[in-house]
Request: fold
Amino acid sequence: MEFACNRINFKTVLATLTVAFFIGRVSLFGGVFPAGIAFITVMLAVSTIYIYTLPVMAGSMCLAYIQEGSSWSGTDPYGDMAAMILCGIFFLFFHNRKFTINQRTMIAAAITLTSRCVYEMAAAYINLTTLDSLDWPLMGKELLALVIYIRVFNAAAGAVLAPSETTGPVREKIGLSVAVAAVSITGAIGVRPVVFAIWFFMIAVTAYCRDATHAIVISAICDVFWRCFHGTSSSVFTSLFMALVIARFIVAAFEVKYRKYVLAIILFVCIVITTKTFDISSAVSMAVFAVIPSDFLGSIWYTIEKTVSPEEVRREDEELLSLRRHLRTKRELFRSLGRVCSEGSPVQRAVACQFEALARVTDRFMDETRQEELGVRTDCGCSVNVAVAGYAMGQVSGDSALSFSFDGNRQGLILSDGMGKGEEAAPTSQMVVSTLSKLLKAGFDVDLALRTVNEILMAENDGEMFASLDLTVINRSNRRAHIFKMGASSTFVKHEGRVAIIKRPAPPIGVAAPVRLEYLDLKLAKGDVLVMVSDGVSDCDRNDRDCRWLIERLTEIGSSDPGVIAELIINKAVEKYGIKERDDLTVLVAVV
Reply:
């Protein structure tokens, strides 16, 4: 069981001594010290040089006993100290014998049981008393804890000190062993506010970087250790169980960049509500957790996982971490190039918009990889049925309309009317609709896509070519609609039989820079009808500037078929024109 690839250096010695000091302080069930015996049993299997941890653990045992003083209610540590020293001597002397982990466990248990009995007999002889003080149930608990700690330290040491040879234990077994070791080492500090602050931080990081299930497991380990260490449990762990279950469902509803803060708030609030007191430990740990940058937290997490995971898992984590670093570098490059091009001609500003969009697309891709890692799935929530109806004055309509999906759960509705009529206006409106839809599908944010189209129009014709733009973006997961209007006619929304008009005066796209990016936020309900029209429809009755005829017509229509609604509105607009010269007519209808 000797790890050939293990290397001893100053950092290893310092880390091992620190771990050994705290392990020696692990006192369970009112005064037994099985962790030190298990640690020396495992470490001498790694390398005989770790015998130097023996005096450190013996000293920390004595220090823990002295610090407790008269308040010490359990047995003294000298029986376990003798067992630890004897185990060290035995495995050092027989280091050439390749004992299996089961053989080492049985030898350590036998030495511990013998040492405890001999010590109690000697104490009884010296004090001239009987052996009534020999607590057999306590010794049984100590032997069980010894077996568990040997298994835990064996898996943890194999992963941390010789990861290239750790092929047997699976990832979950190694992770559980490292968690038990970490909880035991930090718990040995003994000061409740400090210990609980560290544990809360560990649980929050695990819930954020892994998932709630693993965080609940660590909470259970903390609870069990605190029971064994102090004999009583703390109600705060009940709070953590409840908080983690709640957080598992609530946190997924928020964007990735907000999830860490939401998780910290949920954990803190649940602890305060359940314990009915302000817990300074949870406040401090959650504040530190929220302040630490997510990228740094993720890097630390992957470094730890890379260390303790099997080789194939370490390779996947390293590739993902390298990808994220590469993406962050590209994102900063795109942003710096965008700043360089932001001042200048329309062409330069259009290029600046594209660089900024590339930076945001990179950011979004990083969020998506994060969502996949957390197992977050986006539910579309609702469907949107869309239909378009039109009437062209000539062979070609100068209006262009399009409905499309993007970003997985968003529906885009675009209606544009080019400058002029028919074939004269068609190229501009088609370019606006086609370019804007492609940019949104490519991952551009709406504001950047609109700015890019605006700069392209200005660059091509020096501000002499423009078009109206009516854009509605519906988020199908929460049924919220963002309505952007640039020189466009009013939008009509039918809700429970009543019709509301949405209008916003703004110059057409392609007229001026920078673009005023304002939108109306609207909450849609099931059955709502949203109608977008070109100015040919809204201007069909010049005596009715408020389009009361359209409101009445939309109120009368009982159908929920968007195609039927669009055709009925077009027919009514043609009827309103009569024999007058007609403009191009286009109606886009969306039904939730």
DSSP finds 20 helices and ten strands in the chain. The radius of gyration is 35 Å.
